[in-house]
Amino acid sequence: MKISKQARRDGKQLFRNCVANGLLDENRVRQTVQQVINQKPRGYVATLTHFQRLVRLDVARRTARIESAVDLPDDLRTGIQTNLARRYGPGLAVSFARNADLIAGLRVQVGSDVYDGSVRARLVELAENF
Amino acid sequence: MSNLLREIQAQIAGVKTSVAKHNVGLVREIGDGVAKIEGLTDAMLNEMLDFGNGVTGLALNLEETEVGAIILGEYTSVKEGQEVRTTGRLLQVPVGKGLLGRAVNALGQPVDGKGPVKSDTTYPVEKIAPGIIKRRSVSQPVQTGIMAIDAMIPIGRGQRELIIGDRSTGKTTISIDTIISNARLNKAAESGGDKDYRPLYSIYVAVGQKQSNVARVISVLEEAGAMPYTIVVVASASDSATNQYLAPFAGCAMGEWFMDNGMDALIIYDDLSKHAVAYRQVSLVLKRPSGREAYPGDVFYLHSRLLERSARLSEKYGNGSLTALPIIETQLGDVSAYIPTNVISITDGQIYLETDLFYQGVRPAISVGLSVSRVGSAAQTKAMKQVAGRIKLDLAQFRELAAFAQFGSDLDAATQAKIERGKRIVEVFKQPQYNPISVETQAAILWAAQNGYFDDVAVEKIKDCQSKLSEYLTTRKSDLTTKLAKEKALSDALTAELKAAVTEFKQTYK
After folding, report:
1. Distance from the first to the final alpha carbon of chain A
2. How many angstroms away from the CA of A74 is the closest CA of chain B?
3. Nearest CA in chain A to B26
4. In what order do the strands lie in the sheet with B200-207?
């Protein structure tokens, strides 16, 4: 749907109001959505659509996905989470997944940053270099 | 075989084995050669982006939640949801003498079917112009071979001279004549072993033109033997707006290589009106705010940063130069439109071509009154300065008096003489296309005109007389023209020789 400038501005304002101490507050997000639906201001669907997009992008920025070829032991998982929290701050949503295509090693994606130490990535890099 | 194995081992060892860090995003929207990408938080302005499958793009819009990128090359293979990576590099094009004689596109890839381009160096397409300290004032001429320009609107190496006029008034012809003239001078200096002559290499950037036009230009340059000194950068009308937007910058990068390496280059942007239109299209698709005539607000900056890169560098920085001849097409002679006034205010003068003059048979159709070179006689040889000093004044007086004479009133002898002299000067300045005249021949002809040797020749026979005089000087008095070419000034002795030669010619001319 086409989202007008006013809807973008309103959505952005709602999003800013849901941020506390630099982190998105989930409870505030839920309350905000409910209130907007109840009150139904002009163009509220477009506003909520844009608000949803901003929340989605923020969640993606604060999400870390760790892929490995095999299941990781608990101590390694804890170590990775600690390192990520140190680098990116608190509030990171960490998920682990298995991806046999990596062959070996880890691929960590936090938002737009990808740290790829997998064997597959090295083979691809070798192929590009040669 | 063992050497080969050692080489491969060394290469494998040299490849980085540490964890690679990338910055990625996902394509949210793709259309009209522009992609909107979510993510890419570390993307920088004008950074190259990798879309995979050999497709790259340029990040132009850095917004809060997304990056707007223009796609270089085939954009139909890009899909929504596709991963995009930053590369950490700016867009670069191959540069160097290996590009001479070649036709390339806006990315420096060959389009002439003559195989890959030989180049070891690349230059960034976007670069900051040389600063004030690096520059030097313009004092060396660019011999266009067109008498009207070399005499009255002289262009110097490092200058920006705009060629402006309506469609089909001879703008491209002037630029091609300049290329051909300089190619001939380059060749003559090479064959004559003249070590003091600085060759001038040319770059012709075709933006938004028909491919048939570009093919014709290349064919003319090849026939005239100018292609070995020329690079042709093509972004035709069938190319994307992105390529048309980038082509002048790519050509400028190629010219800057010559300038930075102590050589002289000439770049022709044909034309910047179409360049502005392509940039408008790119900006509108990127949803940038539009201003006057729907052009983006920074359309002035688009051309100013391009043209500021043309300069003459000081001795300390190599003494190289890049001369620019931008071309602008006006509509119905309107030089007060948006883009023309922008570019006029940036350049160091303009050559204004009028449709009326063109159809009256005055070709090149240069309006002497509206044309100017802000560098002026600093870019002329002494010989030309000596003979061409009064020409502009004579022509201005002729124009005033010609309008007055139309009323049919009786005029005194002095006024009649001025009118007759003016008519002959106008005839002398007419010149067929692709026939540049050497500066020594120009000086001789203008000296003859200024000293009344054409006054007794009928106006309709002036061109015939002029061409026969040129032939006479070139064939029978080649010593004189050689001396004139070497000394570049009309000394008393040379003037006496020239007088004798022209007098002798006049006695035999009927």
Report:
1. 46
2. 22
3. A112
4. B103-104, B230-235, B200-207, B264-270, B321-329, B162-165, B349-353, B372-373
The two tokens of residue A21 are 């101490």
Tell me, what's the pLDDT at B232?
A: 98
Mean pLDDT of A61-81: 92
pLDDT at position B509 is 85
Q: What is the pLDDT of residue B53?
A: 85
Check B19 against A129: CB less than 8 A apart: no
N- to C-terminal Cα separation, chain B: 82
Closest CA to B100 of B44, B182, B20, B160: B182
What local confidence, expressed as pLDDT, does residue B8 receive? 73
Helices (H), B430-491: 439-450, 462-475, 478-487
Which residues of chain A make contact with B15, given a CB cutoff of 8 A? 125-126, 129
The model's pLDDT over A27-54, given as tens digits with 9 standing for 90+, comes to 999 999 999 999 999 899 999 999 999 9
CB contact under 8 A, A112 and B39: yes
Q: What is the pLDDT of residues B72-126, one digit of tens each?
A: 988 888 999 999 999 999 999 999 999 999 999 999 999 999 999 999 999 999 9
Give the catalytic positions of B in this structure. 374
**Rounded distance between C-alpha atoms, residue B336 and residue B353, angstroms:** 15
d(CA B494, CA B481): 10
Tokens representing residue A19 in the block: 């941020």
B-chain residues near A61 (CB < 8 A): 41
Q: Taking the CA of residue B415 as centre, how many other CA atoms within 13 Å lie in the half-sphere pointing to its CB?
A: 11
Would you list the DSSP string of B22-86? EEEEEEEEEETTEEEEEE-TT--TTEEEEEETTEEEEEEEE-SSEEEEEEES--TT--TT-EEEE
The answer to whether the Cβ–Cβ distance between A115 and B21 falls below 8 Å is yes
pLDDT of B238 reads: 94
| Helix-helix angle A44-61:A5-17, to 10 degrees | 50
Instruction: Tell me the percentage of chain B whose pLDDT exceeds 70.
Output: 97
Among candidate residues B156, B479, B450, B416, the one with its CA nearest the CA of residue B311: B156
Contact B116, B89 (CB under 8 A): no
Calculate what percentage of chain B has a pLDDT beyond 90: 76
Give how far A35 is from chain B: nearest CA, Å. 25
Contact A114 B11 (CB under 8 A): no
Give A73-96 pLDDT, tens digit per residue. Answer: 999 999 999 999 999 988 889 999
Structure ipTM: 0.83
**Shortest CA distance to B48 belongs to which of B124, B151, B122, B110?**
B124
Contacts of B25 in chain A (CB under 8 A): 112
pTM of the model: 0.89
DSSP of A12-27, one letter per residue? HHHHHHTEETTEE-HH
Report yes or no: A75 and A105 within 8 Å, Cβ to Cβ.
Answer: no
